[in-house]
């Protein structure tokens, strides 16, 4: 249970409780399902099935922009799925991608010939990330500007918009090493991992964990180079809903990289940030000073864990030192400060836990009663 995991982190426990009790709607407004057309309801159903995390941040957008981004994401996700299917021969795939726009007007169109995916070895890491994520960042930025919610510069600066997408994509690829291995996919760039092992799958062997961590740290260092662009991009945003939409995934990404850095668990199981921490980040990342504080916090975590023996340690220190010159604040996040004694906090947490248990029991009883009445 997520509340139990947060017992050693009082502020996370408090924020998780506050989030569950309705605080989420300050960051992600509740969508009025009744006002949606049947087509839009279908789109949001597919969106939730495709990506729960992205479905959540989309709801942070103003209504008209929300619908446009929902459609944009679904179309790009379909294209990405088609592009990633290595069982389709290149000629057929190119033809399908070129004609994909026409399939959108054919409700019954399906592609049923896909077989089990072949293993994909990625050699051109930057180009791949650009096409699957950088272009998404560029397209969204141009959409924000075209809607006049943001200044034209946001859509015109394709380099920084590209970095927004690349930072997220690289983070996902780094974190998902083991899951991708288990499902027969390989997205870590061969130009990097081949310096350490003969096959990417060799990193799952305990005798190679030290080499695996060195490769992991090198990839994380590479991803950190996008942070200056991310800070510049976010600092230009003026619309609150757009800012929340853009900032929340970025702070989640830096937190994920900090959790993965120099961590053998990436090659043994799943590395995730606690839900209480995730909720805290979502509720904090609503303004630029707070976002800079979050970035600073996790960069310092990485910096203090850099092993001297690591092959990329000098580069990691260098990029973090460069980012520091952007005058990131060194203060702790407000939500993570505690002005109360441990005894008082323990009492409050115990009271909150008992209250939550009572409310959950009451809610379940009410739901059971309603379901019984419906039958």
UniProtKB/TrEMBL annotation:
Keyword Glycosyltransferase among UniProt keywords: no
Cofactor: Mg(2+)
Enzyme Commission identifier(s): 2.5.1.21
Catalytic activity: presqualene diphosphate + NADH + H(+) = squalene + diphosphate + NAD(+); 2 (2E,6E)-farnesyl diphosphate = presqualene diphosphate + diphosphate; 2 (2E,6E)-farnesyl diphosphate + NADPH + H(+) = squalene + 2 diphosphate + NADP(+); presqualene diphosphate + NADPH + H(+) = squalene + diphosphate + NADP(+)
InterPro entries the UniProt entry points to: Isoprenoid_synthase_dom_sf, Squ/phyt_synthse, Squal_synth-like, Squalene/phytoene_synthase_CS, Trans_IPPS_euk-type, Trans_IPPS_HH
Cellular component annotations (GO), alphabetically ordered: endoplasmic reticulum membrane
Pfam families in the cross-refs: SQS_PSY
CDD domains: Trans_IPPS_HH
Keyword entries, A-Z: Transferase
GO terms, biological process: cholesterol biosynthetic process; farnesyl diphosphate metabolic process
Enzyme class: transferase
Recorded metabolic or biological pathway in which this protein acts: Terpene metabolism; lanosterol biosynthesis; lanosterol from farnesyl diphosphate: step 1/3
Gene Ontology molecular function: D-glucose transmembrane transporter activity; squalene synthase [NAD(P)H] activity
Annotated function: Catalyzes the condensation of 2 farnesyl pyrophosphate (FPP) moieties to form squalene. Proceeds in two distinct steps. In the first half-reaction, two molecules of FPP react to form the stable presqualene diphosphate intermediate (PSQPP), with concomitant release of a proton and a molecule of inorganic diphosphate. In the second half-reaction, PSQPP undergoes heterolysis, isomerization, and reduction with NADPH or NADH to form squalene. It is the first committed enzyme of the sterol biosynthesis pathway.
Family: Belongs to the phytoene/squalene synthase family.
Protein name: Squalene synthase
Organism of origin: Rousettus aegyptiacus
């Amino acid at each position: 249970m997520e509340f139990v995991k947060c017992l050693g982190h009082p502020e996370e426990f408090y924020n998780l409780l506050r989030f569950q009790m309705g605080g989420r709607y300050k960051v992600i407004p509740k969508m009025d399902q009744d006002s949606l057309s049947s087509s839009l309801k279908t789109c949001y159903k597919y969106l939730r099935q495709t990506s729960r995390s992205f479905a959540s941040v989309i709801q942070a957008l103003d209504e008209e922009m929300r619908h446009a981004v929902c459609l944009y994401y679904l179309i790009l996700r379909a294209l990405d799925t088609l592009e990633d299917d290595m069982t389709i021969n290149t000629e057929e795939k190119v033809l399908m991608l070129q004609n994909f726009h026409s399939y959108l007007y054919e409700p019954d169109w399906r592609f049923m010939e896909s077989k089990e995916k072949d293993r994909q070895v990625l050699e051109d890491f930057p180009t791949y990330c650009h096409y699957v994520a950088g272009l998404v960042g560029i397209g969204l930025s141009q959409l924000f500007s075209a809607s006049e919610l943001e200044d034209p510069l946001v859509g015109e600066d394709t380099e920084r918009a590209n970095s927004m997408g690349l930072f997220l994509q690289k983070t996902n690829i780094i974190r998902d090493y083991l899951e991708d291995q288990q499902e027969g996919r390989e997205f870590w760039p061969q130009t990097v991992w081949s310096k350490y092992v003969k096959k990417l799958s060799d990193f799952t062997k305990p005798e190679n964990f030290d080499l695996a961590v060195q490769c992991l740290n090198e990839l994380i260092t590479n991803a950190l180079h996008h942070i200056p662009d991310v800070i510049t991009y976010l600092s230009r945003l003026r619309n609150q809903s757009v800012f929340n939409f853009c900032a929340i995934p970025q702070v989640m990404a830096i937190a994920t990289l900090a959790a993965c850095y120099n961590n053998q668990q990436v090659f043994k199981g799943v590395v995730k940030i606690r839900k209480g921490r995730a909720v805290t980040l979502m509720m904090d990342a609503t303004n630029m000073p707070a976002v800079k504080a979050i970035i600073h916090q996790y960069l310092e975590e990485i910096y203090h864990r850099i092993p001297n023996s690591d092959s990329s340690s000098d580069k990691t220190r260098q990029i973090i030192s460069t980012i520091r010159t952007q005058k990131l604040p060194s203060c702790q996040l407000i939500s993570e400060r505690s002005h109360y004694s441990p005894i008082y906090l323990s009492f409050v947490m115990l009271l909150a836990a008992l209250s939550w248990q009572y409310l959950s029991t009451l809610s379940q009883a009410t739901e059971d009663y309603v379901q019984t009445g419906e039958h």
